[in-house]
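Closing statement on the flavin mononucleotide sub-project.
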Amino acid sequence: MEKVLTKNIQPDLPYVDVKAYEATGGYQGLRKALGMTPAEVVEVVKQSNLRGRGGAGFPTGMKWSFVPMGADAPRPKYLVANADEMEPGTFKDRLLMEGDPHQLVEGMAVAAYAIQADVAYIFLRGEYLFSAERLRRAIAEAYENHYLGKNILGSGYSLEMYIHLSAGRYMCGEETGLLNALEGKRANPRTKPPYPQVSGLFGKPTIVQNVETLCNVPHIVKNGADWFKSLSYTQDGGTKIYGASGKVKRPGLWELPMGTTIREILEVHAGGMQDGVRFRGLLPGGASTDFLVEEHLDVKMDFTEVAKVGSRMGTGTMIILDNQTCPVGMVRNLEHFFAQESCGWCTPCWSGLNWAEKALTALEEGQGQPADLEHLSFICNLCAPGNTFCALAPGAVEPLQSALKYFREDFDRHIAEKRCPWSSQ
Ligand SMILES: Cc1cc2nc3c(=O)[nH]c(=O)nc-3n(C[C@H](O)[C@H](O)[C@H](O)COP(=O)(O)O)c2cc1C
Ligand code: SF4
């Protein structure tokens, strides 16, 4: 299986082994953390204003502080790196794992120490075979060098680390669906509370944390909270891996100060739009975020600023819409993905997203009616936050509701012209 999938492709970055990682300061954060109390490690991460990079932006140190500590705390405790990364347009965690796997291993060891976890899992997207291969190598090197296993670096703290390859559903990235999948069950979400910090994997205290979030942790411990905060242009601490895909000159990923403007990411780092193509809009952080348009280009990309203009930073990896791409077709494509990935647990999601896909397909095929647009708005309201068990459905309708707002004339043209206006282009 691995041979077939990797036959004609190569990893984007060379492997960094343990010696090369140590030569640039690797595992210094772990050494320092082991000389601190777990509570001190939690505090420095709290003070750094690190917010989760998996999409929701929850403050990381605060999340860790909810884990029961002390001699009476339930055992074992778990740390899980969420490396599922099935969000369309998002590929930042893959690059981190392929390019610098020891950074994730170290970040996990520090985070696990902070919550006194006994076991750590990397829940890895099934298709990420290069990541799996390199993480396996890095974990083996970490055990050989006493960064994992019994009595890490003579500290008395022990941690075992395992990789779990996902069987492959978008839903497995939702943290409670992930925990069910890891237990070998169907990946439906769990009702919260109880939250995983208190009752997670096998009913024990568990922290689920995104790969990029964890990769920040050793640097925060090594250099301090003030250093981390000083890297950012805004209140959210640190740097962020931003990305751009679509018809830009240089699609890719860039680590930049948190709060870099959308314009700088798009025009400087991604090189602007390809020749002969104009910018129309963008999904700022993966497929499940609301469109932003030209008037938002000077917005600073952080969790707070993007929310102020009606979208979400999400994963920070933008999908760009250009003037040669039909916005209705683009949204139809996304709703097809979300409808297919619905776990079927709640009606607004499994039924609503299918209806949305059908109505968008009818519009694309020239059979749309004015009532279809009202129906689409109704589905967006039906899938609003609070109406479903998990955030898949509210996220799924974000590109749809914002396309209806910003590209309404394109929807109207499909109905008036009884065809997709882009079909002859
Ligand atoms: C449908 C769905 C898919 C998700 N997929 C991922 C994912 O692939 N990786 C990830 O880190 N978070 C994903 N999340 C968010 C997680 O539920 C969770 O918030 C995150 O892993 C917490 O880590 P963080 O605080 O470091 O961001 C997903 C959420 C939903 C609703
Ligand atoms: S919103 Fe969708 S994916 Fe989430 S629980 Fe409901 S049916 Fe499942």
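The chain is about 45% helix and 10% strand. With this model delivered, the sub-project is considered complete and its resources will be redirected to Aim 3.
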